[in-house]
Every structure is written in structure tokens, then in C-alpha cells.
Amino acid sequence: MDRWIYNRLYSKCPHFEGLTALDLGCGEGFNAVGLAKLGVNVTAVDRQTAMIEKTQQIADKEKVTVVTEVAKIQDFQPNTKYDIVLFTHVLHFIPSENRENVVQKAIDSVKAGGALVF
Fold first, then answer.
1. Residues 26/46, Cβ–Cβ less than 8 Å
2. 17-74: per-residue pLDDT in tens?
């Protein structure tokens, strides 16, 4: 997991076990798997099937569970709120006409008192 992200999250929630997280635009799942290794229940979303497959391969290798979904962030509809929402290194991939709605969706996906890493 990215050390900068870990440090920001740890300062907000030093106990990860049992928390929920959403990784929007997860790429190869580096952060998603890292959170799962800490005991977080993670959902990882990416628009590229190859990235989701890589995320699942890494999760399997590390013997952790990561729920994955292939979807464009602007089309993904979370059915719950999360303790942690990661929305990193993806905003520039979102069409400009969708950015405001996507950012609002990320904000709305965080539980009260949760953490949004943007």
C-alpha cells in the first residue's frame, strides 16, 4: 500500500480491522490489497477488466479477499457507504463533464466520520 495513503488513513483510523473501503479506480489493486491485508473489507472498482483481473490475482496470492467490479467510475453505483473511500490518481481520466458528479459520488460514499483520500 502507498505509504502516504497509509499514513493519512492511520492518523484518522488507527484500527483497520472490520472497516469497509471502496477503492475507485483501483488500477492493479495495490492499495485495495494493502487495505485487505490490514483486515479491511474492500471493494475495488476499475473500468479495465485487465486491472480487475490483476487485482484479483494479487489478492489471491496474498490470501485476502477483495470484492472487485469492472465499471467506469461515473457509472458505478455504490449500494452502501464506506469507512474509507480511496479516489486517487484517477480524476484526470474522468471526462471533464462528469468530474463534478464523480467527486460528489465519492464524497457521498463516505460514512459520517469516515475518511476520503482524494
1. yes
2. 899 999 999 999 999 999 999 999 999 999 999 999 999 999 999 999 999 999 999 8
What is the total residue count of the chain? 118
Count CA atoms within 13 Å of residue 38 on its CB side.
20
Task: Tell how far CA 114 is from the center of its chain.
Answer: 13
pLDDT of residue 2: 74
Q: State the angle between helix axes of 49-62 and 30-37 in degrees (0 to 180), rounded to the nearest 10.
A: 30
User: 23, 25, 21, 20: which is closest to 74 by C-alpha?
Assistant: 25
Q: Which alpha helices (H) appear in 1-118, and where do they start and end? A: 3-12, 30-37, 49-62, 99-108
Name the 3-class secondary structure at 109: coil
CB atoms within 10 A of CB 26: 28
pTM exceeds 0.70: yes
Distance of CA 2 to the CA centre of its chain: 12
